[in-house]
Amino acid sequence: MKTFPKNFLWGSATSAPQSEGHSSQNGKSATTWDYWFQTNPEKFHENQGPENTSNIYEMYKKDCQRMKEIGLNSFRTSISWARLLPDGKHVNQEAVTFYRDYFEHILAEGVQPIINLFHFDMPMWLMEKGGWESRESVDAFAFYARTAFELFGDLIDQWTTFNEPIVHIECGYLNGAHYPAIHDFKKAVQVGYHTLMAHVYAVQAFREVKPKGNIGIILNITPAYARSAEQADQKAKENADLLTMKSFLDLAVKGAIPEALVQLIKGHELTPETNPSDKEVMKENTVDFIGLNYYQPLRVQAPENPRFPAQDPEDLYAPYDWPEKRINPYRGWEIYPKAIYDVAMMMKNEYDNFPWYVSENGMGVANEERFMDEQGMIQDDYRIDFMKEHLDYLYQGIQEGSNCFGYHTWTFIDCWSWLNGYRNRYGFYRLELDNNFERHLKKSGLWYKEVAQNNGY
Ligand code: BG6
Question: Which of 87, 142, 221, 335 meets the CB 3.0–4.6 Å disulfide criterion with 292?
């Protein structure tokens, strides 16, 4: 029996845009996702857009009971910025009523909510002014954060600012998977910098409004492993870690952007515009905890013909195809559970054993109806095996002293996945798209319930 620490969080995560539905209703204004689907629906798997998603907006009362049914003691979702402040300035009362009732129902089931503020859902009114490219976004986000803390701070004690900030930077400004889908390394760095500053100003607002709560940030961790011990490959690993991991992690925990990253960016003429007072604000506004989403590692090697100055991160670290990799064929992501142990040790040794939790881990699988038994239950043993393998390594890290306080899966009920629509399913509950969004428990939900109840397995 592997028993986890006392009060360990067993839960799941989702986000507002992926689960609420009612995307153009109840006073919510458009986000970049609504706009992109309207203008380019063909980009989305089977034309599945953001409008309906899992309809938690109408079904949350029963869904909160479902959380309890499978033993979750904690749950993360986000607030939709465009729903709460449709024009960025004025509060939508209908959104306040919805979120308050939703959060009260989560609490009533004895589940601890962790509420996030931004999960890739940029309001369109702000995107029209440049989105994260513009410094105005920093103030706009800080205002939104303060408003949310004031409106819901009496109910919610655990908050996070961003989910996976590296993703909206990479996908929006380098690889085309998020709107505005442009390729411009310099803009990507500026967007990254404004996101960093939006985070620290939100933390500053939090300290003023809610001195007793906890605030953190959710980062996607893709620990870099180099092809070899050769110096050039090791340099590629160092560059990858600086850009994809230490950028936000050091800022959040240590209150500063690593000097090596500042120099790397400067050397490639990518330095963003900053304000003189920024460094001080960073230093004063570190977080209370870190959430790390882990899905896959990053295999790197030295780039063969790097351009100078770099036009793309691939000029600083090139992808390496590790011959021994194990792949989740549906998502194309490597499965490498040991990285969770390496991350646990990194948090212990390089971040002074800072408190952290696994804020997402999971396996997306297509056409899961293949695995439905006669009673209508999806027999997703592959998902149970995936979680077990990761938990084994997490347990080892905790045994060796890493300060990890929880494990959240992605996700609770199958949800909408951006351009992938409903192709890959991750949930403990299957969502029936053509049957009024009915939810059906999968085998993994039963397994997780036992784990949560026993605080181990
Ligand atoms: C995480 C995100 O990166 O992974 C989620 O926080 C996302 O929003 C999840 O849905 C799974 O990835 P995908 O692309 O398969 O939906």
Answer: 221
Is residue 230 among the annotated active site residues? no
169 closest CA partner among 312, 58, 358, 344: 312
Number of H helices, E strands in the chain: 16, 17
Q: How far apart are CA 33 and CA 419, in angstroms?
A: 9
pLDDT by residue for the chain (457 residues), tens only, comes to: 999 999 999 999 999 999 999 999 999 999 999 999 999 999 999 999 999 999 999 999 999 999 999 999 999 999 999 999 999 999 999 999 999 999 999 999 999 999 999 999 999 999 999 999 999 999 999 999 999 999 999 999 999 999 999 999 999 999 999 999 999 999 999 999 999 999 999 999 999 998 889 999 999 999 999 999 999 999 999 999 999 999 999 999 999 999 999 999 999 999 999 999 999 999 999 999 999 999 999 999 999 999 999 999 999 999 999 999 999 999 999 999 999 999 999 999 999 999 999 999 999 999 999 999 999 999 999 999 999 999 999 999 999 999 999 999 999 999 999 999 999 999 999 999 988 899 999 999 999 999 999 999 9
DSSP assignment of 250-310, as one string? HHHHHSS--HHHHHHHHHTT-PPP--TTHHHHHHH---SEEEEEES--EEEE--SS--SS-
Backbone angles phi, psi at 224, to 5 degrees: -90, 135
Do residues 360 and 293 touch, judged by C-beta distance below 8 A?
yes
CA distances from 57 to 20, 22, 179, 316, 415 (A): 5, 7, 25, 43, 13
- Domains present along the chain, CATH in parentheses: 9-454 (3.20.20.80)
Of 17, 14, 64, nearest in space to 293 by CA: 14
77 ligand 1 Cβ < 6 A: no
In the set 133, 238, 334, 360, the catalytic residue is 360
DSSP label of 29: P
Confidence (pTM): 0.98
> Does ligand 1 have an atom closer than 6 angstroms to the CB of 12?
no
78 lines ligand 1 (CB under 6 A): no
Stated as kind and residue range, the H or E segment containing 13 is strand 9-13
Residue among 221, 359, 360, 365 whose CB has most ligand 1 atoms within 8 A, to mutate? 360
**How many A from CA of 409 to the centre of ligand 1?**
11
CA of 417 to the centre of ligand 1 (A): 6
Answer yes or no: is the C-beta of 296 below 6 A from any ligand 1 atom.
no
| 8 A C-beta contact, residue 121 and residue 81 | yes
